[in-house]
Amino acid sequence: MSVEKMTMMNVIGNISDVDNVLKDIILSGKVDLVSALSQIEDNSFVFNVKDENLEKVIDLNYITSFSKDKNYEELLKKGEELESILNMKSNYMESNLKVDIDILKASDELSSIYEEVKIPSEELKKAQEELVEIEDFYKSFSNIRDINIPIENLRGLSHFDFRFGILSKEDRIKLKKNYENILAIILHTGTGKEGEVYLTIYPSNIREEMNRILRSLNFKEIQVPEEYKGTPIEMVKYLKAKKEKLQKDIDALERKLSNLREIHQDAIISAVNQLKTKEKIEDIKEELARSNKFFYLSGWVSKKDKEKLGEILKGYKDMLVMFKDETDLTPPTKLRNIWLFKPFESLVKMYGMPSYNELDPTPFLSLSYMFLFGAMFGDLGQGFILLLGGMLLGRKNKVFGGLLGRLGLSSMVFGTLYGAIFGIETILPALLIKPFENINTVLVSAIFIGIALILISYIYGMINSVKRKDMEDGLFGKEGLAGFLFYLCLLILIGGNLLKKPILSMEVGVVIIILCIAVMVFKQPLTHLIKGKRPLHGEDITGYYIESVFSIIETLLSMLSGTVSFIRVGAFALTHVGLFIAFETIGHMIGTTAGNIIVLIIGNIVIIGMEGLIVFIQGLRLQYYELFSRYYKGEGREFKPVNIK
């Protein structure tokens, strides 16, 4: 339940082994690569200079980056095209990395298969395109087949043009209203799915005017190719026969390609997977450096994986592997949490990844979030539905399913404490409290819960400041020790006044508060004074103090509003009961048992769906705005080991 400790791994090996080394590193899934060239240029790539390593040192004078091998790219495109043509997909998995890459063999196999598949594939594509075209013509001629005039006779008109087309219902009405203004013969020839089909015949010398008129009517023209002759009904018969022949040709070509797929499927998948492995390795090489004889690799590794990686790489001849804990680079963050907290890492990452020198907030967020959700949505039956939904969703999405399941479990626990099952509070006895019967207790308890969580967040913040060696914020900041004492003292004074039992005298409390305010205002000069740093202030002294004063006001308001904000936990616990009572009342108003049951079922569905989502969001809001803002920065970079994805 922490951030794993990292170490920098530097590797030097023979250039001939680079592909195999990268395959082993990808398979291990334990190395987050960084630019080896940058490490060398910054003099951060350190290794033991012994007699046997002298050649590696000398070769550093010829250091350069890897140039990407693009010979495989055209071949991979060809392989992926074959997969598309034959309607197949290579199942690329880690096991493919274990197969030795033989680009020459893959090239020969794919080229041979490609030539065999290309011709029937092109014939199939051409036949399919022709069939689509024929289908369009067939539909067109079907709409005008009632005209018993050969198409060539219409084309032979000396001084007239003709056009077939379709009009919608609205455009037909417009046409009828303007018949007397159109110098053309307009014949209704049939009805199609898109509208009414018309033949228009008009003098050639008014072609432009007719084009304008027909455009205004949204006239969708039916094109009649020049090669088609005879009457429309003869064209329909001709096209039908052509369609049948094309379909037979397409079926035969599809059978041929299906047979080719059965014959060559394994070879294509194997070749494509090898090429994808090569592609991944070439991408990774961009992070490596090379000389004439050697390659140089740098990457972050978890300290607990050092020995395992050493074992993996020691099998290579003349391989030099070194681990370095001290480095100027900030390591990436790799979270390590038990199964109960694991799904909540996604909520942490939504806000930001913890820095390497920052406490992992996942355990605190997990426990507090489950507690808050259960307190707001306490119901044994509805919680069970959420748990069941989480288990089902977990098959497709482990993270969201895991979250939903854990929140459902928390809801079940609080439902038992509240004595509520599917909104009904008369079946089970409450082991702790019935919220609707103890409204004041619930609301006051919610505020005390908020105070406890805020105090814990202050402690987290101070620990993070110590880890970052940030004295200014850790001791004197509004989220540091000064802010903590300010908040604690304020609570004690307010609490003592409300209870009429002073825990701390008002005079002492006011003095402590004033000292805390002064410390927070003068935090920068105080820090510089302790560290012996000069000058005590930055360049804009006036601006600093104005900002500090306003910051104190903002801090006070934030403390008060943040504390009161937790009253919503109690409010939602009450709303949860109240919403069910509303549905129960509606059910009784219906007056029948069946109607009452239906309303209660609908009510539970609405409560689980709508209120469950609202409570989820409100719980997240309390975490992000009231707690995270006090102790968590989330400015880290996630540990991302190289892999095949």
TrEMBL record:
It comes from the Bacteria. Pfam families: V_ATPase_I. It is a multi-pass membrane protein. Keywords: Coiled coil, Ion transport, Membrane, Transmembrane, Transmembrane helix, Transport. The keyword Disulfide bond does not apply. This is V-type ATP synthase subunit I. The chain crosses the membrane at residues 369-393, 413-433, 439-460, 481-498, 504-522, 543-560, 566-586, 598-620. It comes from Tissierella carlieri. InterPro entries: V-ATPase_116kDa_su (IPR002490). Its main location: membrane. Belongs to the V-ATPase 116 kDa subunit family. PANTHER family: V-TYPE PROTON ATPASE SUBUNIT A (PTHR11629:SF63), VACUOLAR PROTON ATPASES (PTHR11629). Residues 236-270 form a coiled coil. It is found in: Membrane.
